[in-house]
Specification:
The structure is a single chain. This protein is an alpha+beta fold. The chain folds into three domains: 180 residues, no CATH class; 162 residues, Beta-Lactamase (2-Layer Sandwich); 123 residues, Histidine kinase-like ATPase, C-terminal domain (Heat Shock Protein 90), CATH 3.30.565.10. The strands form two sheets. Strands 3-2-1-6-5-4 form a six-stranded antiparallel β-sheet, with helices on both faces. Strands 7-8-9-11-10 form a five-stranded mixed β-sheet. The two termini are 18 Å apart. 29% of the residues are buried.
Length: 560
């Protein structure tokens, strides 16, 4: 089976900042290249000292620009322009400046184009690197050219300085624009989070923690949340860089275990660095005088096993409080990251509150509907079965113990009684919204298997993962899938051996319902419509296969 990749496996830093500028940059590069070729062709005397070599170089640059444009044609455009494109522009610019008038060359504008392309597609750091390289190469070529002609100090010194200053400003604004684009991207992702009642708000918190993890290019991201309705229980949410798309569901921890992480003031958001550079040590000595907070951050760094982390408070209007911790990764953080981390945390809290409110409204509406359905089941289904049971018991008494049909009638009475108990239990569970989790889910599956073996003679083996952690709603839905699969075995096959298998892997629940193949050839490929519809409703997939052990197996994969 080909497993579908989780959505977040494709999540990267570029996904927050991509603007689709690669085709535009390629078009402008072509325009500049062919414009330079036209200028030299129509007016070579005032600009070129090595005419033939310059013409050949510009032709090659035009060809290279055209190839890059074809590479980013519609439908084949990359998310970001490759790094080698703007570095190639820098090398071509240096060579063309060396072939023309040095510091006075018109091709100095190509340096600015390379800086613009790098800054607005890769950010401040890349733009600054391109600016530095362009300034050094431009200054070196200017000096080399001036030594062969006449030394002009103003052009050799002033123009590289202007290029450096202008390049720095371009890099700064390009990085700033990219940061704002990335921030708007993650804000939009969090705000437009599609709520799924089956997953609940715990899934939304875990998903948003993983988004924060990739936005800040961090190693881990964790949330310790103390619920307002429980003084002794807290939840621990965790996402890690080495677990792509596998943000864990919350773990319940007691207040004593959560208390060491909640020692900072409730309104404090900060960055702590255990080994700061010299200017960070100076600013820390000037502005951070609170030794209590510094010592608390040192203790938290030891608990988190990191040398640097961002922390921000998490507060809900219903009284739930907690704190988010983002541990260091590859990206150096600044003070603006503290502010934005606090804003993201506040937004996630608001989104969770909205989900909780919607969940309450849906739950109250569903509660009335469950009560109505349970009463309908009792009146329209349970009561007729009770009448059938009474009739069968009367027939059994009339037949007497010596009648050859007495045993079969007794089995029908027992099956009717078992069905009545199942219907009553289902009505009660529906009315009281009783959920299945963990061992209860496994026990219910084994109970159904024993029921089939007792009354229908089908030996159903239950294979189960030891650590089967599923949510309450998913457990009930999975049990319905297993019951439907065993019912299909009874109705559509003559098999006397079957097995059901349940295990969790890669944040997915795998269910297998198998029956032995009767006869020499297996049944042609088919798709059980009811099970397939249930799997699709749960966001999963299903298919049927035949294994080498001689079983027809229905595979159901449901995301956790």
């Amino acid at each position: 089976m080909e497993k579908r990749a989780a959505t977040l496996k494709t999540l990267s830093v570029a996904s927050f900042s991509s603007s689709g500028d690669a085709p535009r940059i390629a078009v402008v590069r072509c325009i500049l290249a062919f414009s330079g070729l036209a200028i030299i062709y129509f007016d070579p005397a005032g600009t070129v000292h090595f005419t033939l070599l310059a013409n050949i170089s510009l032709v090659l640059y035009c060809i290279w620009s055209a190839v890059l444009l074809l590479m980013v044609s519609p439908g084949n455009a990359p998310t970001l322009p490759p790094r080698y494109t703007h570095w190639g522009d820098v090398l071509f610019s240096s060579f063309l400046v060396a072939l023309t008038q040095g510091a006075s060359s018109i091709f100095v504008l190509l340096f600015l184009f390379a800086i613009l392309a790098a800054s607005f597609s890769r950010g401040f750091r890349e733009g600054l690197l391109v600016t530095g390289a362009s300034t050094v190469l431009f200054g070196f070529v200017g000096v080399w050219f001036a030594l062969k002609t006449e030394l002009e100090v103003d052009q050799i010194l002033v123009r590289p300085v202007y290029l450096l200053a202008l390049g720095y400003m371009i890099a700064y604004w390009g990085g700033h624009e990219m940061d704002q684009r990335r921030r708007l991207g993650i804000l939009q992702l969090i705000n437009n989070n599609h709520w799924n009642p089956r997953f609940g708000y715990d899934h939304a918190i875990a998903l948003n923690l993983e988004r924060m993890l990739y936005f800040f290019e961090a190693k881990t991201c964790a949330l310790i949340l103390k619920h307002s309705n429980s003084a002794a229980t807290c939840s621990y949410y965790y996402a890690a860089k080495n677990k792509h798309g596998q943000a864990e569901l919350p773990r319940e921890i007691n207040e004593a275990a959560a208390k060491p992480f909640l020692g900072l003031p409730d309104d404090l958001a900060t960055i702590y660095t255990r080994r700061p550079v010299w200017w960070e040590r100076v600013t820390a000595a000037l502005f951070h005088k609170d030794t209590v907070v510094i010592n608390e951050c040192k203790r938290l760094a030891d608990l988190l096993e990191t040398h640097c982390f961002i922390t921000a408070p998490f507060a809900q209007r219903d009284g739930g409080t907690g704190r988010i911790f983002i541990t260091s990764g590859d990206k150096p953080w600044t003070n603006t990251d503290i502010v934005f981390a606090g804003q993201l945390t506040a937004l996630i809290a608001q989104v969770v509150e909205s989900m909780q409110l919607m969940d309450d409204l849906v739950s109250k509406a569903a509660e009335h509907e469950r009560i109505r359905i349970s009463l309908d089941i009792h009146d329209t289904t349970v009561q007729p079965y009770i009448g059938l049971k009474l009739g069968l018991e009367a027939l059994h008494r009339q037949a007497g113990t010596d009648n050859p049909l007495s045993k079969e009638i007794g089995e029908l009475v027992a099956m009717t009684q078992s069905t009545i108990q199942d219907l009553r239990r289902h009505a009660i569970n529906l009315r009281e919204d009783t959920s299945l989790t963990g061992d209860t889910f496994v026990s219910a599956a084994k109970s159904q298997a024993e029921h089939f073996e007792r009354f229908y003679g089908v030996n159903v083996e239950v294979k189960c993962d030891v650590d089967l952690r599923v949510s309450a709603k998913l457990a009930g839905a999975a049990l319905q899938v297993l019951a439907e699969g065993m019912s299909n075995i009874l109705r559509h096959t003559k098999a006397k051996k079957a097995y059901i298998e349940m295990y969790c892997e890669d944040q997915k629940l795998f269910l297998k319902i198998a029956n032995e193949i009767m006869g020499k050839t297996p049944i042609a490929d088919f798709m059980p419509r009811s099970i397939s519809a249930r799997a699709l409703l749960l966001g999963g997939t299903s298919f049927v296969a035949h294994n080498v052990q001689g079983y027809t197996v229905i595979h159901v994969v449901i995301p956790l």
